[in-house]
Amino acid sequence: MSSRSNPEIMYNFFPRLVSHAGLWVEHLERIAQMGFNSIYINPVQETGGSRSLYAVKNYFRLNTEFLPPGADPEDFSILTDFIQKAENSGITVYTDLVLNHTANESVLIDQHPEWFKRDGAGNIVHPYAIDPANPSNITVWGDLSEIDYENSQNLQSLIKYWDEVIGFYQKLGFSGFRCDAAYKVPGSVFIPLINAAKKRDPKTRFFAETLGCTLEQVEQLRNCGFDYLFNSCKWWNFDSSWCLDQHRQFKSIAPSIGFPESHDTLRTPSEQPGTLNWQKNRYILASVFSKGILMPMGYEYGSYIKIDVVNSRPEDLKKGKWDICDWITRVNMFKASVPVLCQEGEWQQLNGFDSNVLFLIKKSDDSSNKLGVLINKDWYNGTEVSRNSIPGELARFKYLIKPFTDPHKTIANGGTIDLGPSEIVFFTE
């Protein structure tokens, strides 16, 4: 079970990839054996007509697609049982908290129409996103209704309702919440909600999903009580400093969680180059980059069918390119055993981004522990790194680790280093 000082090594249990919740327990042994200390479950509540998991209709009724035939959607004991069995396996369980929108069919629209954002004609507004690279490319989620935090005439009653929702799921046994699109909810709303939740249970954790937003939107979540942010290392191809810059800027807000893929991205085997080395590259990067890591269900099997909030099916898990469960286990054990990887730490690049390889060093918060990193930026071809091209700070390390093969095996740091395509190597003392 994860403690405050231990890193979150989190498994994203995507409910549409498993049959009803009574069968979820069958996956716990594998998840625990791979070294994950927490599970995050996407929304399990009753949905609107689109059937998207994030189009919540009623926060106090379960999605019948995740229940045995004939089960009562207002009986949450099936979740309580799963949480208890997970905790018995040493795994903490978190869930999603969707506060920025509801389904168009939400019961709240009739009960509290004043809580929703409206246009000039009085129609409820659908949330949307603007592509920063192309402002004319606007995505509108027509199945969702946006909550109004700016002009609501009854904001305190809305906050009180969300507090009741959080308290309800705490009583079920959930130990924390991933706050979907947290940047769309004012920090002034999160502060009383997080304070109240942690007063009920000080161990409760809150995770801010802050991807695809502006730096100012992340900054407004400072001092709200979040335990973690999510970082963007999944998209870093080692071609510029932007990821290191964000890490440096946001670490003072909260430590962060990296991930090799998510339910919003393509599966890694479906991206170029789609190799086993690329699968390992993305996982190793997420594992070492920040204090926490999240791995979505199916990554251990090389699943290549994109996770879909509407259409994913259990059969999708059977369609994978390789089984790397044992390797994931060794990497997770390595992360948990290396002090600098259990902290957000501080990154420093040691050579230019124009090189075909990248040298980095990660230092612990007090600089007492260090880990050197060498990355082959060529996804398709191997390369050799001569001894005299290794920066002095890394040349002084005694050992190398080739984690693509075995993260627990050290070899002498001397001579030429052979790198496979996309390969990452560690320098250690």
In words, what does this structure look like?
By secondary structure, the chain is α/β, with parallel strands linked by helices. The chain folds into two domains: about 10-345, Glycosidases (TIM Barrel), CATH 3.20.20.80; about 350-429, Sandwich (Immunoglobulin-like), CATH 2.60.40. The protein has ten helices and 22 strands. The chain has helices at about 30-35, 75-90, 105-110, 155-170, 185-200, 215-220, 240-250, 275-290, 325-335, 390-395, and strands at about 10-15, 40, 45, 55-60, 90-95, 100-105, 130, 135-140, 145, 175-180, 205-210, 230, 255-260, 290-295, 345-350, 355-365, 370-375, 385, 400, 410, 415-420, 425-429. The strands form six sheets. It has an eight-stranded parallel beta barrel with strand order 1-2-5-10-11-12-13-14. Helix 7 links the parallel strand 12 and strand 13. The longest helix is centred in the middle third of the chain and has 18 residues, at about 155-170. The protein starts with 8 loop residues before the first strand and ends with a strand.
